Amino acid sequence: MEVGRAEAAEGVTRVLVVDDSPVDRRVAQLLLSSSSCAGSFHVIAVDSAKKAMEFLGLNLMDGKGQAVDMVLTDYSMPDMTGYELLKAIKAMNLLKPIPVVVMSSENEPQRISRCLNAGAEDFIVKPLQSKDVQRIRSCSTARPNKGSAPCEAATKRTPPPPSGHHAAGGAASASGRRGHFAGVAMILHSSSAELSQYFPLLVKLVLLAYAVLCLGEILHRWSSGGGGGRSLSL
């Protein structure tokens, strides 16, 4: 659970990211915190719908919780799905509900229609990409930037389903694998710059470890030779 404070500066969109996949959570954080979006989003991440409920105060009698401008949730999660979280959020405040964008690695028209009919502002097919950031921003309750596009309908992005059950399952599986690999690649790329600054230290540690091993070998030979009566060599 990677919960942070929901307080943010004026004009900054506070996004609660809900996903049980560490890779997908990290991808969402990287995209919304990228240089092109710097200062536009304040990301709070949790790994389950139940923790999102607690964060929003939906499990409390007084309903007091942290304020966010929108929720970006995965559809398929254990214990409580993103669809169930969507319905709970929409029932929390009927007059001014929190905008919810649902994500899924499976492009199923029935699933998309189900979420949109339940009140979701948008439905995004994973992997999350940089072009989706504007869609997310336009769906929030925060004051939109000038010239921002209106929230796009998810049906515009949805291609017609492939014919045949096996074809649909294969396409969804391939899409999920591509999304996972793309997410891992993004995380590795973002971490490479951070790791580079520790490289000289790692080299020194390796050399130190080698020196300790050599010293241990010398001491072992010295003790085996009866106190150093014979010459020592590595």
UniProtKB/TrEMBL annotation:
Q: Where is the composition biased (Low complexity)?
A: 164-174
Which ranges does the record mark as transmembrane? none
Taxonomy, superkingdom: Eukaryota
Q: Which residues carry this modification: 4-aspartylphosphate?
A: 74
Q: Where is this region: Disordered?
A: 136-174
Q: Which UniProt keywords apply?
A: Phosphoprotein, Two-component regulatory system
> Which residues belong to any copy of the Response regulatory domain?
14-141
From the UniProt record, give one GO term of the biological process aspect: cytokinin-activated signaling pathway
Give any Pfam family that matches: Response_reg
Q: What is this protein called?
A: Response regulatory domain-containing protein
